[in-house]
Amino acid sequence: MQANSEIVERSSAGVGDSLKRGAMAGLPIMFGYLPIAITYGVLASEAGLSLFEITMMSVMVFAGASQFVATNMILTSVSAMEIILATFVLNFRHFVMSFSFMNQIRSFALKWKVPLSLGLTDETFAVGSLHKKESKDPYGGWFYASMILVSYSSWVGGSFLGGVLGEVIPAALSQSMVVALYAMFIALLVPSIRREWKIGIIAIISMVVNYLLSALGISDGWAIVVATLVGGASGIGLLKEEEA
To answer: Which phi and psi angles does 121 have, rounded to 5°?
Structure first.
């Protein structure tokens, strides 16, 4: 009985320590997510989504870029199928991230792999990849779960708060926050271009294709889908050439 008690205590201490370290690792993500999630909530409210719809999109999707794109497409009255295809193409990178992360935690049981894979975003993947040693820890699953839960909770909570603010702040102010959508994507693009100028060419190709398709009367949704695919395809050739 004494031995069993000691084992339980050590196990509890191990779980608690992993939960604490995971939460600390997730704090920077939380502080980064909150203002963006609030902005998303305000924009989604401006697009006509209810507070329930705004919150549930974050609960079920948990993909910031896709939610911003979907919100922008809703504002332009794009069909549901076009939104689904556009966000699918945009999030296709998650397949690659999932394969990489699953390889990192290949020693984990399936009961850990399934829920952890659902919490992968660019940020949680990046932080998780920096903590590879936890994949060898008997309590490593608790670390990753805690880190993801902190991130997920902040995104959902921020979305809810943004939805509430969108209903009470003046219409002129909420409409002006649409600019934040473009500012966010520019902020994501510029550092990448500074690291690799060819990414700028890929962005320009996508913009030109989108503009031409829109000028030809193609709906905004399909123009975005095709422009994303063409840009991605051009990137394969341009960046592969750079590596060679």
So the answer is: -130, 180
CA-CA distance, 169 to 165, in Å (whole number)?
A: 6
- Cα–Cα distance, 25 to 144 (Å, whole number): 9
165 vs 52, 64, 70, 168, 169, CA distance in Å?
14, 18, 20, 5, 6
pLDDT digits (tens, 9 = 90+) for 12-45: 557 888 899 999 999 988 988 888 898 889 888 8
Look at residue 24 and give its three-state secondary structure.
helix
DSSP symbol at 137: S
∠239-64-230 over CA atoms, to 5°? Answer: 35
Q: Which two tokens stand for residue 120?
A: 């992968």
CA–CA gap between residue 240 and residue 243 (Å, rounded): 5
Contact (Cβ atoms closer than 8 angstroms) between residue 184 and residue 36? yes
Question: Could you identify the residue written with the tokens 């060419």?
Answer: 201
pTM surpassing 0.70?
A: yes
Measured from the Cβ of residue 26, the count of other Cβ atoms closer than 10 Å reads 25
Rg (Cα) of the chain, in Å, rounded?
A: 21
Can you tell me the distance from the alpha carbon of 180 to that of 37, in angstroms, rounded to the nearest whole number? 11
Predicted local distance difference test score (pLDDT) of residue 164: 92
